[in-house]
Every structure is written in structure tokens, then in C-alpha cells.
Amino acid sequence: MVRTVSSKTLVAVILCAAVLAGCGGGDGAGQKLPVDNFTAEEIYKRGEYELENNSKPDAAVYYFSEIERLYPYSEWAKRALIMQAYGYHKARKYEDARGAAQRFIDTYPGDDDAAYAKYLLALSYYDQIDDVGRDQGLTFQALQSLREVIEEYPDSEYARSSILKFDLSFDHLAGKEMEIGRYYLKRGHHAAAVNRFRVVVEEFQTTTHTPEALMRLVEAYLALGLTDEAQTAGAILGHNFQSSPFYKDAFAQLRGRGLTATPQGDNWLTRVYRQVIQGKWL
């Protein structure tokens, strides 16, 4: 018996052949094939293939965007949009990734993949943190976007990762303050250095940079002749981080001046001491 082949099956065979042509690393891989006669599912599978087998995700993004063009109101278009965001992010085209992710959130706010879209949007900021030099705008945007994932989707699989990245971003901001403070301290601009280290102690006290910030405050205040502040910084450091090498350094600096690590006077550090250590907030 001779079996006839439907036009739909024939299209699928042609697409499969095109995909297989790319499997061997030949000319098929990465080429943007005309897809006007393909079904949404067939185009989607070609996009998936490009993501898995092509080092440059641009081709995959092309296929996913074509689904939006050809089948704008289909279920496949919705799936393709989130994959566009992923493809752009993989290609490190972060602004495009944010755009696609935000379009998904705006168009499908109640969809199960909205949490992932929000997470991708946050990642597009987070993954740029190390590339922005002293400009911390993207770090603040990463913090805000990560917080939204944590607060809006606390039970999602992305919440835990967002919490970790939020803490790392927060630590990054404190690290930048420390970097600038050390720069000022090294050049003898002690008052400017104090301002930076104060920010760490007051606004980033839960980060890993707090012990060093307190030690640097001891150093800067001693250079300025403000011994009350230096001793109080040493007292906070000794109470909370006595095993830290930064405390040993601060203690040695104070002892070299005949001073002790005890709170003295009435200044912003004694207020921190009363609040954090003594629990007196008034």
C-alpha cells in the first residue's frame, strides 16, 4: 500500500532535516532559515536546538521572536517570549533581556513563568555588577529587583537564589564604600575616609566589611586626634569581632597611644554602641 504524506508532515520532515544538517557542525547550524510555513511548535523546537548547539544564542532569539510575529496570541508565543529573555541573557545582551522579561511580566503577570521572568530581569542587573566600575546604579537596581522576587514569589524556586544574590549585592555596595575609603585614607584624606567607613558601619553593618570598617575608623580617628571616637570604634569592634585580625590591629594601634578599646564621649559611635551592644535606643 502506498501512503500519502500530508503537507504538515512534509514541513516537519524538512525542518528536521535542517536541524540534522546542523548536528554535524555543517552549514545548517546557526543559519536563520525562513520559517513562514512552519508551525509555531516547529519554530520553537528549532530555537531550542540553536540554544543547545550554537555558541551564539542570536539565532535562537531569532526563531523565538519569529513565533511572536507569526503566532502572536498563541501559547507558543508566550513560551517563546520567556525564551527570548533567556537567550538574550545568555548572549549577555542585558538590556534586551530586561526588555523581553518585562514584556512577559506585563503581558502575563499571573503566569507560572512570571517568577522566572522577574528572576531573569534581576539577573540582568546582577550579572553586570562587576562591569560597572564605581557606578553603583545597576547594583541598586539589582537589589530592588531581587527584593521583588523574594517578596512577590517567596515560595518559588528562585527565592532562595535571589536571597543569596541580594546578600552578595549588598556586600558589594559595602565593598565599594570600603574601596573608596581606603583610597582616601592612603592619601591622608582622613575626614573623607571616615565618611565612607561610617556608611559601612551604619548602613551595611551586616556585611563582611564591618570589622575592617571599624578598624579603619580607629586608624582614621587617631590620625585626626579624635581619641574618643577611636576608642569607641575599638570597643564595638572588640565586642562583636574580638577574634578578628582587624581587632588585633585596632587594639595595637590604641595601645600604642596609651588608649583602651572602651566607649568614650558622646558621638555617633557611642550611640551605635548603646544601640547595638547595650540595646538602648533612646
Automatic annotation (TrEMBL):
The keyword Lipoprotein applies. It is a lipid-anchor. One of its GO terms (biological process) is Gram-negative-bacterium-type cell outer membrane assembly. Residues 1-21 form the signal peptide. Keywords: Cell outer membrane, Lipoprotein, Membrane, Palmitate, Signal. It is found in: Cell outer membrane. It holds the Pfam family YfiO. One of its GO terms (cellular component) is cell outer membrane. Residues 39-233 form the Outer membrane lipoprotein BamD-like domain. The keyword Zinc does not apply. Belongs to the BamD family. Part of the outer membrane protein assembly complex, which is involved in assembly and insertion of beta-barrel proteins into the outer membrane. Part of the Bam complex. This is Outer membrane protein assembly factor BamD. It comes from Paracoccus jeotgali.
